[in-house]
Every structure is written in structure tokens, then in C-alpha cells.
């Protein structure tokens, strides 16, 4: 139990030298080690959803929570520590005032010790400019991928969570501006150079989806990624007051107050066809991305108090409680029509069970073994169809995959004209 005098002292703010950061601390100063769990919590802005926040705190298993923000003060401290009914050891809000504050030794130590990290709202470019390409970025990615602890954020805090992201370096951009010119100077993007969150590698997030309507600009973000990289693009978005909570296996629960309010999460993907790229995504011209009126397939999920509606970003096709829509853009004008599950075979491979090959263990942690009586070949892909490793001919092999992030992968086995696709799951 914490002594009342100690508690009183700890809730007072600590002003760092030269005002590089301000600390607001509530709880026990002693560091604890807990059986924390991995997870990602994304919120669309406005008021936090209590049940989603309980999910987030429970992942910390009684540990220490650090709130990172670039403006504001201690609004999360009491909310996290005493108002949600989840026991935790401490909450510390670190208001970072500049890039020096982001790499202050005390700040880095507190982040390293945290069992849960939460990004508040504000301006996402502050987070990018203060935390990217420095020791803080390294610690955040270690928290996610090595320590495998929970992380999350709302509004600007959600905006930075994707493998590619809108950084708002030149201020916000409206849907009309982005649709009229996908390379408008305000459409400022970062590509896979900041946070490395499993399942979100080719995903861009967006927030405040209903106020104002941001579906147009989010579609432009996906179009830009597809055009610039040649890869299929994915997106996750939330209306205000809506949250998505991502488990280690890629299952996402959606929290909100539907049907009392129109609170939805959206899961976007460039359609899984050979010619998925935009017809016209060029500087100074309106976006055209039509496909067959299905350029972007979207699963729209109402958020509920219990989060029973869900979607899988492990396969981007399995969900409950939502509806499919098709989105497309014609000369800068975006349209939305009812759609259907794309039911994509992401790699375009037909499984042939006649190939008798042993692949073990599965799930795996560091390596897999392949055994077959005659020469076969293989190609290893990530979930987005990117080729990771290839071998033309072998009869048995141990494949070292310790360098891969946890997630879903596919192994395409070939023997003559036959193919077999094996789904692999990598744990920690």
C-alpha cells in the first residue's frame, strides 16, 4: 500500500532542467516487473472509451503506465490510476517540449521501464520530430517487439501507429485538398521509418473520421502508398469516441456506443487484383482510382460497449458485425457503394494437397524445418505478398527466421507444376 504523504508528493509536477519536459507522476515510484501482454489500442479522438481503456490497462498487469504527450498536462493520471477500476502501479505523464526532452535520460529510463505506453492527442508532427531517428524511437520499437508490451494512442497518437503515416509536417489536409492533388504539399507522408508494429507494416491510420469527413483524404493516403511503392496499401480509421484493440494474433475488437451513436471503425485495403494501383495519382491532378468501382474494399464495423464486433488484420477478410463497402474515386470525386468480402488469396496461389512436405514447428519462434523426399523449391512471403526468402531446390532444410516480427507468413512450396501454400505463424 502507498503512504498518503508519498502519494501527495508524487502527484506534484516535476519541471525538468531547461523545460525540456514536464513530469506528472501518480502512484508508487518503485519499478515493478509484471506478466504484461502485447496489444495495440487505437482511438479516433474526443473522449476515451472506458472499456477500451480498461483493456489497455489490463495488458499492463499492474505495471507502470507512461503517457507521452507534447502539450497539455496530467489529465490521464487520475483517469488511469483510480477511475477505471484497474489496478496499476503508477501513471506518469511526460509532456515533451522539444527534441531534447524526447531523449532526456530520465524520460528514456521511464519509457524503458513502462509496461504500457499511451500517446495523447495533439500534433502528430511533434511526436515524429521529437521521437523519430533517435534513442526514443529505438526504445519504442523495443517496447513493442522485444518487450512485447501494450502501446496505444488517440487522435495524433493513433495517427503515428501505422508503418506509413500522415505526419502533418505542413499542417492538416482536408479531403477536398487531397483528392484534388494527391501530391499537395500538405499530403506529407512517412514510409516505414518510425514505429514497427506487427500487422501494421503497410497500414496507415486516420482519426476523427466523422468530424470532418476524412474518408477522401484517407483514400488518397492509400493511393499514394500504392503508387509510390508498388505495394497494396491498407488502412485503419476510427470515428470519434471509437476504439480498436488489436490482440497479438491480429484480431481486432471495436469499441463504441453503437447503436446510440454512429461510432464505427473502418478497415481499408487496396483491392487484391493484379492492377490494384490508381489509374491517375500524379502531382497537380485529381485522383482517379476506380478499379471496377471497387478500388478500395472496406469493412465498416460498429463499435459497441463490449467490443464484440471484430475484424482480423491477420488475413484482412474475416470479421463479424460489420458490412463491406466498395470505395472508388473518379477525377477527385469519391463514391461509396455496398460491397462484398474480397476473400483474397493474397498470393494468388492455389493450394495443392498432393505435395507431401513436412513443415514444423508451426507456430514457430526462431526457425522452421522443411523435409521432402525429392527436390522442391519454396518462396516465403509476408502477409502483403512481399517476397522475403527464396530457395529453388532442396530435399530438407532448416530455415532461420528469428529476424522476422511476430505475425502471419506464407510459404509457397513448388514441385514441378504443382504448388502448395502453407500459412505460418511466428510467435515471440
Can I get a quick summary?
This protein is an alpha+beta fold.
Outline the structure in words:
The longest helix has 15 residues, at 215-229. The protein is an alpha+beta fold and 428 residues long. The radius of gyration is 23 Å and the shape is globular. The chain is 20% helix and 34% strand. It has helices at 4-10, 50-60, 75-83, 99-102, 105-113, 124-131, 135-145, 156-159, 175-180, 215-229; strands spanning 13-15, 21-27, 39-43, 64-69, 90-96, 116-119, 150-154, 164-166, 189-191, 203-206, 234-238, 243-246, 251-255, 264-270, 296-302, 310-312, 319-320, 323-330, 333-338, 358-360, 367-382, 387-400, 407-415, 418-426. It folds into two domains: 11-338, Class I glutamine amidotransferase (GATase) domain (Rossmann fold); 358-426, Sandwich (Immunoglobulin-like). β1 (13-15) and β2 (21-27) form a beta hairpin.
CATH class of the largest domain: Alpha Beta
How many strands, what sense, and barrel or not for the largest sheet? 11 strands, mixed
Number of strands: 24
Q: Label the overall shape.
A: globular
The number of domains: 2
CATH topology of the largest domain: Rossmann fold
Low-confidence stretches: 1-11, 346-352
CATH superfamily of the largest domain: Class I glutamine amidotransferase (GATase) domain
**H/I helix tally:** 10
Proportion in β-strands: 25-35%
